[in-house]
Amino acid sequence: MNDYIIGIDIGSSNICAAAGKLDKYGKMQIIGITSSKCNGVKKGVVIDIDSTSESIRKCIRQLEKMIDINIQEAYIALPGGLSELIKSRGVVAVASEDGEVKQSDVKRVLKAAKIITIPNDKEIIGIIPEEYIIDGYDKIKDPIGMSGIRLEVDAQVILAQSTVVNNFLKSVNNSGIKVLGLVFEPTAIAQAVLKEEEIQRGVVLVDMGSDSTNIYNYEGGKLNNISTISLGGNTITNDISVCLKIPLSSAEKLKKKYGSVGLLSKTKPLKIEINTDYNNKKKIDYNILLQIIEARVDELLSMVDKKLKSFNNYENISEIVMVGGGISEIKGIEEFSENLFNKTVRVGVPNYIGASSPMYVTVVGIVKDISSSIKGKYEKKVNEYEDKDINKYEKTGKVNDSEDIKYKNTGVVSKIKEFFTDFF
Question: Which family does this protein fall into (predicted)?
Fold first, then answer.
């Protein structure tokens, strides 16, 4: 299983799992992806460990059948809406006599940036470097190999409640899967659907889940704002169920099959026949269904718009990318949202065959983030040993993790993996 990268996204309504693999050209491929229903998580928080573990177990079994391997370990995403970002700066002296910055110096300066005061109920679970500074020269993304005396870093320290993180880890461990590392959810999503140019220019990710909506604002290559709304796609389902007097399961099927916005003035009277409990059939007025969906979608998006306008860099937001299974798959949502936001809107989907759905964005981002970290190590290793047989490294995938090897940590998990040593 060492050749595969397994990611698990624990959502409020679904558990998604994906398996990825680097091909011989160093490009990540999604080999298998699946999902299963989950009732043990609410608003991103595990409320029933046993139920969540069983959903994870079921999802992993489905993935094992797809790719024909035994899965024992995986990476998981930490929900951004449950996290807090604190700006910090770390400063160290370059240790080597010749003044060359090594991987060990980067580790020390990141550790120095984590020396901050935090509440008793929270833990530092990671750190995201924004820029490095060498002897006063800033805007440095990768300082390894450069020369200097003083190394600094401006970073964002990621905090989360200890109980929340513990319950996530217990849920996965109880399912028989070992957690190899955490990937910060906003970065995972960005990896899957955003380009570097968009992150630099100014973009907002709207991740609408079943019962909460997370808003992530990127500009200048970094995450500037995280905001959460405690409503999601389930509110639409609930409204359909109450107004049309049908079970929630039938309401969810109606939403997914017929959900549309912006068509009220174009539709003719139409009746939809559905099966309710005990095989009873019921006819639904299509126009009434559209009115219910459009009214709730308009309310949810208006709440998102209010959050966006509270951001200091609102005028710099050039695009809004919608992900998640909440409303992203409703027909006409892009045009409807553009009219409300007065900004360019698109639905973000991973560019992988079999995984091109908004609900798979996070789990694909996990796999891609880890593969980026592995690929970065591999490429640096090959460059250093260019006189050796390159095919050997492609076949074995073995990389010497000596601190003297200068590689670029492109994956977020590589920046926060030390959490597990400290946490346990």
Answer: Belongs to the FtsA/MreB family.
> What is d(CA 83, CA 180) in angstroms, rounded to the nearest whole number?
20
Q: Give the separation between CA 105 and CA 192, rounded to whole angstroms.
A: 30
SS3 13: coil
Q: Please, which residues bridge with residue 147 across strands?
A: 100
For residue 310, the 8-state DSSP code is T
Q: Which residues on adjacent β-strands are paired with residue 95?
A: none
Decide: 208 and 300 in contact? Cβ < 8 Å: yes
What 245-252 contacts at long range (C-beta under 8 Å, 24+ apart), as own/partner pairs, is 246/274, 246/276, 246/282, 246/284, 247/276, 247/277, 250/274, 250/275, 250/276
Let me know how long the chain is. 424
**CA-CA distance, 24 to 383, in Å (whole number)?**
16
CB 29 within 8 A of CB 48: no
β-strand 14-22 against 28-37: which pairing, if any?
antiparallel
Q: Which domains does the chain have, with CATH numbers?
A: 5-80+163-191+359-415 (3.30.420.40), 82-162 (3.30.1490.110), 193-231+296-347 (3.30.420.40), 234-293 (3.90.640.10)
Residue 204 CB contacts under 8 Å (≥ 6 apart), including other chains: 215, 216, 217, 218, 308, 317, 319, 320, 321
The β-bridge relationship of strands 319-323 and 203-208 is parallel
Q: What share of the chain is helix, strand, coil (3-state, %, to 5)?
A: 40, 30, 30
pLDDT 10s digit of each residue in the chain, 424 long? 558 999 999 988 899 999 999 888 888 899 999 999 998 998 889 999 999 999 999 999 999 999 999 999 999 998 888 888 999 999 999 999 999 999 999 999 999 999 999 988 899 988 999 999 999 999 999 999 999 999 999 999 999 989 999 999 999 999 999 999 989 999 999 999 998 899 989 999 999 988 889 999 999 888 988 999 999 989 999 999 999 999 998 898 899 888 899 877 676 778 888 877 767 788 889 999 999 999 999 999 999 999 999 998 899 999 999 998 778 889 999 999 999 999 999 999 998 888 888 889 999 999 999 988 776 554 554 444 444 443 333 333 333 333 333 333 434 444 444 444 344 3
